[in-house]
Amino acid sequence: MSDIDVKPDTIAKPKIEQPRLHKVILINDDYTPREFVTAVLMMVFHMSEDQAYRIMMTAHQRGACVVAAFTRDIAESKATEGTNAGRQNGHPLEFTTEPEE
Ligand code: NFA
């Protein structure tokens, strides 16, 4: 066996890929009661009443509001959970998701 020590010229630097986050977006509508939207935000996103109220009002005034960002699966299941909570109570409440830049 050779005594010559062979080492690579370059050492690979481990690259850690951060998963892309997806935003959950609350869409305004003319029918879902404000208190209902606030309650759904508190329940699904574990927000205080104060935080939930502010996000609800931002969507109400601007048409939509980013609620939070998660990995894709979590974002999609939270959007579905929120939308279904509205549907089960006869409201057209809608949450969508969108990948972050
Ligand atoms: N615009 C609704 C209302 O005035 C409240 C609402 C806010 C609905 C945010 C959906 C999203 N009752």
From TrEMBL:
Domain Adaptor protein ClpS core: 18-96
Protein name per UniProt: ATP-dependent Clp protease adapter protein ClpS
GO BP annotations listed: protein catabolic process; proteolysis
SUPFAM superfamilies assigned: ClpS-like
Domain of life: Bacteria
InterPro entries: ClpS, ClpS_core, Ribosomal_bL12_C/ClpS-like
Function: Involved in the modulation of the specificity of the ClpAP-mediated ATP-dependent protein degradation.
Keyword annotations: Hydrolase, Protease
Residue segments, region Disordered: 78-101
HAMAP family: ClpS
Keyword Hydrolase in record: yes
Family as reported in the entry's similarity comment: Belongs to the ClpS family.
Self-association state and partner proteins as the record states: Binds to the N-terminal domain of the chaperone ClpA.
The encoding gene: clpS1
Gene Ontology molecular function, alphabetical: peptidase activity
